[in-house]
Amino acid sequence: MRARRWLGERLVLAYGLGVLLYMVLPVLVVMLMSFNEPANRQSYTFDGFTWNNWLDICRPYQLCSSVVTSVEIALLATLVATTLGTLMAFAFVRHRFRGRGVATVAIFVPMASPEVVMGSSLLALFVAAGFGGVLGFWTILAAHVTFCLSFVVVTVKARLSGLDPYLEQAAMDLYANEWQTFWRVTFPMVFPGVLSAALLSFSLSFDDFIITNLNAGQTVTFPMFVWGAAQRGIPPQINVIGTIMFLVALILVGVGELGRRRGAR
Amino acid sequence: MTVVPGRSSPGGVTAPRGAPPPRGDVDDARRRRLLAYALLLPGALWLLVFFVAPTVTLVSTSLWDPSGSILYGYELTYHWLNYLDGVRDYGPQLWRSVGYAGTATLACVLLGYPLAYAIAFKAGGWKNVMLVLVIAPFFTSFLVRTLAWQMLLGDNGWAASVLRSLHLLGADGHLLATPFAVVTGLTYNFLPFMVLPLYASLEKMDPRLIEAGGDLYASPFTTFRKVTLPLSLPGLVAGTLLTFIPAAGDYINAELLGTPRTRMIGNEIQDLFSAGAYPEAAALSVTLMVVIVTLVAIYVRRTGTEDLV
Amino acid sequence: MAESDLVFKSVTKRFGSFVAVDGLNLTVPGGSFFALLGPSGCGKTTTLRMVAGLEEPTEGSIYLGDADITRLRPYRRPVNTVFQSYALFPHLSVFENVAFGLRRRGVADVDRQVRDMLALVELEPLGARRPGQLSGGQQQRVALARALINRPQVLLLDEPLGALDLKLRRQMQIELKRIQTDVGITFVHVTHDQEEAMTMADTIAVMNGGVIEQLGSPHELYEHPRTTFVSNFLGRANLVAARVVERDGGSIVVDVHGARLRAPASRAPSDPQELWVGVRPEKVFLGAADAEPGSAGDAANVLPGGVITDVSFSGVSTQYLARMPWGQELTVFAQNTGARPSFQTGDRVVLRWGEDHTFLLDAAQDASAGADPKGGV
Question: How many CB atoms lie within 10 A of CB C287?
Fold first, then answer.
């Protein structure tokens, strides 16, 4: 009987760990395959160990340029989406205004639309507006900002509404005017939310394929490169990039967690 | 030292006990409302141009005459037949997409809920580590990870060999290029979108409620059904929507892990756009959107949570 | 240096149709420890916030000395607040929290002043810590230091001791009183705890439903309540329905179900016929029904015919409930001096108390107003 109880209590945790393993498994495969020396272009197995992929990352044509393009777009999209979204989040949480219902729907729908619908509607717009021939960097950027905006608003809103309103009142009671209150009290406290919104934006933008593909014209982003490679033959350097991204994400999220834990005390 | 307390308005309304007055800063309501609009304006404009306008354009594109082309332009002839043709030609893919997405969503619930529960209540000091492990793969290019699944599920791959040795898979059976592979890929890709909202909902729950359930003679399963599940409903609904909706429109998993017989509506829309058949593609897109919105509306109405954002 | 008076002139605050504060006229003497006492929802916190500038009056004005501060922004008022939840800035250290107001005003020599203030509240070694690392009592002292260091003309305290345990609360009550006496600033203390208000304040204003029911020293309010609400909210009171019979010199004689009682005429509400006669439970002597008056012989007011229905011994005193012939149960606290007779349930008793301890209240008022529904003190 005691054994059964012990098992029951651990069961959920064990199941959860199993699912977690399932989630991490492909990443492990990616990391493993980054050291692979494929026997031929169509190989799906681990043929031999090599450091070459890491040393010679940019060998496949367009791999590195596509990564650079993706990073550039992601940085810009993050900047614009985070700024616009943070402003909107403040409006939602701190102010009363009419049309709140409409605004909420307008924020939620882009988040919930299937990418293929969003991508195709943007394409329709660009074509109808006569930009059909100049699809590329800027159209991709516009598309990315659009779907990142909603995620930023939701993330910052969540952080902002958890903020003790008395803190700002205390600041004003202590001779800080509105501007000083914002910069010395409100912003430092909402910053972790803004930061995680920015990280989320960056990853959504960097990783986006469907919307990008529809609106890219001749420009090639990293996901598009991977897609093309899937047809042509997958260079192992792709897994190198994947591994690097995972490690960077681990570090960033880890640092973010530590910072949050320190700041919340 | 007594000062007579004054009462200038004998007709003043007395306070209803327990009605909390709204706490706020000094009220200059008008100024604050203008500031609100100013804050909303940039984002609202952006959404207007890059979301609302495209949606309108999509609908109007879907009504163009399909006999036009990029070269010679299109005519808006309110060609409703585009919709009928789309449903007729691609009906199977549409229902298949709903089916795959629904199955994947269900799988995500079955896999994701226990994980979220474990992290929220059973993880102890490992909570943050587990959360990081949920989030970090999400930042890795999911195309790359899907390719990894291609490897894992391939005929020479690890999973297939194991199953074959257990005689669960025929000697010439495959895992890849099957609906199973596609659904697995979808499930995998959208699992974080299910786990994170669920976790957020469960984390807010007071764990003593579970103890109270046990104290009141409920078995662990009954406690879960009657206490935990209803309280986690907002997270469950949010997670379901964030999983089902994008999954229904996905085509990457179908392309990389499936066959021509497992094509989803997303594949068709993408191909039609590539081929330049804008009106048909747009009509299909709108159809997909309508189907999703209808299903979502029914679902949300039944589960009853209105505030998702 | 004389501190300025804080004056409210016909101040009203409405939230939509709900009137939180109704035509308040009040003068808080400069340099005093002033308490706003009342139950939840009576408007005391709203009043405080209007002084701080965190709410704006719908009507009326507020003066600090000669200056009209009614519409001034909070950061322009020489007023500081200690919040109920302390509202310490979690992202700043204790030192920076306390220094916050000084830095915003561009004061020089911040370091020394902050250190002196931390010493005053006995938190010197904790300067580098974050608020989240402190105990409730320590946080409370940081909040106090943060406000005091700016030498405001008025210090506002919004139920600052509510979150502390009993022993700590008692300690802090003494501390706050001492600091106020030393520093000489006007303290306005909002609380629902009548014991706290009476312990600490020089003057108390009892608020109910947005208006002040009575204002005065703790002694005055306790011994001479002017409304049933005040008599029930501060301590306990026995209120019995009575009818005026006649005036006799400086006293009023009333009839209570056949018994004649006397009360000072100066305390009678204007020209009534029906009254509540009130007396505090601890002022009443119980005597056995058939015994001689004894030591309480000169107690003018006598109510015979009581029967003990409940006895509660609480160490310091014994609480008796005596049912009177007309059905009402009166409460008597008998101090455990060792020399007083004790009674048991069912004993027949006579209630006696002095004329001076009797108060008269308008019969139109609700006799249960302000009473604790649980029957506690």
Answer: 23
